[in-house]
Amino acid sequence: MSLRVLxxxxxxxxxxxxxxxxxxPATIWRxxxxxxxxxxxxxxxxxxxxxxxxxxxxxxxxxxxxxxWSK
Length: 71
Fold this sequence. Notes:
The protein is an alpha+beta fold. It has one domain. Helices cover 45% and strands 15% of the residues. Strands 1-3-2 form a three-stranded antiparallel β-sheet.
């Protein structure tokens, strides 16, 4: 089993690139501080990543909430 990871540039969107989520890197970091988004971990001094499964779970939970509201 291998752990798949994403960097902030893969998750957040900027003017130059589209990320997995339509929010800025600042929003991702704010959500992390507020406990609303999965915690990242360090692979090295300047390499911060997130577990893909944690991000998928985050998105699935939000999708589930939206589906419940629309019923």
